[in-house]
Specification:
210 residues; 12 helices; 0% strand; membrane; Small multi-drug export protein; transmembrane; transmembrane helix
Amino acid sequence: SSNLLAYAAAGGAAESSSIGASALGLRIADYLRSSRWPDEAIVFALATLPVLELRGAIPVGYWMRLNPLLVYCLSVAGNMIPVPLVLLYMEQLTTFLTARSSSARKVLDSIYKHTRRKAGPIQEFKWLGLMLFVAVPFPGTGAWTGAMASVVLGMPFWSSFWANFFGVAIAGILVNLLVSVGFNTALLVGAVLFAASTFMWSFLRFLGRS
């Protein structure tokens, strides 16, 4: 929830982040096109990458003049590919690397500390917090960070998976709106989605207390 408020307060921060990811995505797309990759495969592959994710893949799909619905589906599917891998194997990989390298231990400790700092809304609101954290296309959020945060916080696999999925689906809508109709409309839709999610969470809390 605090990420959405920051998104509104920062104005163009999310838009600037999308532009930066798009520029990097276009450079990678140019290289892959020269290697004769199909445009659809390029969009899918870009969405799997950290930093780029949806913010980089969807604008590239528009630049390639692909069907917007196809771009959305490819980007959401690609962005979800790393999620189960992170949820299932991050702890094992961390244990393996830290046991063999002190340098890896320092790097991973830094990543864990950074992830915990970002995970405040997730700790407070659990499933809804993770979903909103992934949904808002703000710098430092997204499926990669959301999956890592859920591992750090010890959330169950399926709860984490579905929270990431719905967050990625909403992020795809917002980035599509950023690209096609501009920041203000995307922010308005994000605010409506936030209000609906907050109402749903309040209702579930009420049921839980009852």
